[in-house]
Amino acid sequence: MNSLRKSFGLKMLLSWATFFVDLTVAGATVSMSVSSPSFSGPIQNVTVPVGREAILNCTVTDLGEYKVGWMKADDQTILSLDSRVITHNPRISVSHDEKLHTWQLRIRQLKDSDAGCYMCQINTNSMKKRLGCIDVQVPPNIDDSLTSGDITVQEGENVTLSCKAAGNPPPRIIWRREDGAKLMLRRNSYKVYKVDNIHGMQLILERAQRQQMGAYLCIASNDVPPAVSKRIMLGVEFPPSVRVGTDILGVLEDTEVEMACNIEAYPLPVTLWIKNQQEILVQR
């Protein structure tokens, strides 16, 4: 009798052990067959002008009970979780297209400070993430503190005019004369040549001459409208030079006569007419 009980008990024990093994294996099989969330592709980077709306699309398949969130990558600021916006920035919103399985991060009235990368996350045990970046296009802006103002020099001195502009993409700087005349430049300090315009942050005028006096325009552009410009006035001081048409005039008595004296100078000189060492007329 005892041997029968032992045999029956051993069979029951083996049966339960077999049941648990089968259950465990079955459970493992079921667990392996369940799909985990995944991204269907990379997030496309976008380039958007300042003031417009930027949209990043994050497509997730087999999300199940997991959640999707957005985060600013550089400072780890949490922006949203599922359809709830966490940040207090009123320009940020999220939307979900169930048919396309796409989660959108939207930033309205884009600022240059919004530029950077954003992270789309799935809250799985081992966090899954994708990065998408926003490039904000900013029109050029000339920095007056780093740009030359009106300047006056003595004839023969060297002059350097500077123009600094910010923007994205980095602006291109072009110099030209306001009156449309060609720029007079020197090569190797001797040979003078003329050009319509010149590129670069600096306009260098070696041994400035009176013919170079006038208004210059620094124009900054980067294909993001509008382009901007600054007017810089260059004055070149030089001593007076006098030219007269005729040294001696013959006229009849009691008739009117006009005498011309052409004076070139900068600043404008005071002109004196003197007869027999006496001042008779002052012109300004």
TrEMBL record:
Keywords: Cell membrane, Disulfide bond, Glycoprotein, Immunoglobulin domain, Membrane, Repeat, Signal
Pfam family for this entry, one: Ig_3
GO cellular component labels: neuron projection; plasma membrane
This protein's record includes keyword Lipoprotein: no
Record domain Ig-like: where: 37-132, 140-229
Record bears the keyword Metal-binding: no
Coiled-coil annotated spans: none
Segment forming the signal sequence: 1-28
Annotated localization: Cell membrane
The protein's name: Lachesin isoform X3
